[in-house]
Every structure is written in C-alpha cells, then in structure tokens.
Amino acid sequence: MTQAQPPQRPTTPSVRRGRTSSKDESGGSQGSGSGVLAIKGRLVEWHAMTDDQRTAAWAGLVEWVAWLHDRYELSIQSRLPECWPLHPGIIEELWTLKMWREALYTTDTESGVLTGHEAGGLAQHARYWHTDLRNLMGQMTFYAERCAAEHGGGRRLADRSKTDLKAGWLTADPTCGIAAPAASAEAAPTRVRRLDAADMHRRLGLGSARGLDGPDSDHVHSFGDWWARDPEAGDWVKITDPEMHRRLDNLAATEPEH
Asked: With 50 as the cut, is the pLDDT of residue 19 above it?
C-alpha cells in the first residue's frame, strides 16, 4: 500500500527542546517521574562490530574507565580490579554504564538543561545511574572474587603501578575470546508495523503520541516513529521510508506546540 505523503511545508529545521514522556511502547506509564529519556535504537554487541568499530569502541571505553577510576576514586576500598579487561562480565557492566551516562550528560551548554522540569527529570535519572554504579562497585566480587584492586587511598591511575595499566587495558580483547551466541532457529519477531485506531487514540490521550498538525492529524509521532493514517483500513501504518521520516521531523521542528 502506498503511504500517504505529508503536507508540503517549508523544511528548514530548527532547534527545539521538546518534553520527554515516561510511557512504554504500548502507551502505558512507567512511573510518575518526569524527563524520561527517549532513546531509539539498540546497543551494538561487541561481536557484532567490525574490527575498526571494536577498536574504536574499546579505546573509548578504556579512556572512560580511566576517567571513571579517578573521578569516583575507584581505587579506594578495592572497588575496581586492575584486571577488569580480563573479566567479560565487568566489561559488559562498564560498557552499559558508559552508554547510559552519555545519554544523560552533555558538555554542550546550548543543548543541555540546567534548571526547570526537564533538568529535574534528568537529575533523577542521574541518581539512578549513580545507584547502579555504587551497586556494581559494591558487588565486584561477583565477577572478580580474588582480583580485588590494591587497597589504597584514592590515588590516581598513573600513580598506582610502575606498569602502564591503561596501555595494558588497550591491548585487551573486549570479547575475551568468547564467541557470539548461536542464532536462534526461530525467526526474530518483527516490530509492529500497524497500529489500530483505538491504540493510537489511547497514545494521543496519554501524551505518548503527538500529531503533526494536532490530535486530528494524519501523521503522528510516537516513541521515535512516525505513523500515517490509513483511511481505508481505519488504522495506522508505521512510516519506514527514511526520507519521509526526515521530512516529517523537519516539519515537526517548525511546527508550534499544540
């Protein structure tokens, strides 16, 4: 079925800080907290990266862990084993903490928020991040029971050993020689491509969907996707054409809040 074309309007993009919504994929609430991050896509597994991607990602993780070590005094009370690159579970924990923090924090004061409703919501999620960090450091023996770091007083990474620990970390293999899991014999489930009118109406009512021209628009944005109304079937079709998705994003950026 041919997808309906969006209305023709100027496509000059503009910067706008929209509010985020704490709704799940079906439109339900995930809690009363505000400022929930809207993140589209998935993290890439180490074994799914190309060699160049893995090298760059690993170097980035090592740099980040070195910063984390000093910023959060991880040498105190043996919080982070020096041999963390040899423990695949610790690698995965640190990798996800890094990705999560980068989704929360920015050094760009033009795009960041300092006060108000959005800042409060993000700060709440930053507290969740710190709770997870403390939990990981407090339970590091789960992965490295006999590999506790040297007990010290919060010394900097460069002062902790005569050897260059960071250089040693860089030469480690992030997969630790563990092959990817075998592909399932069953076909992976496909994402929903159609949404019935009642579900879309519910999303619009909950605020987890927003029409391009208001609630009666033929084009609606919800959870990072654009949907077009199908007048024949009476339901909604997910727009998968990247160019059409881009045009709608540009139109939405120039559209005043309803």
From this structure: no
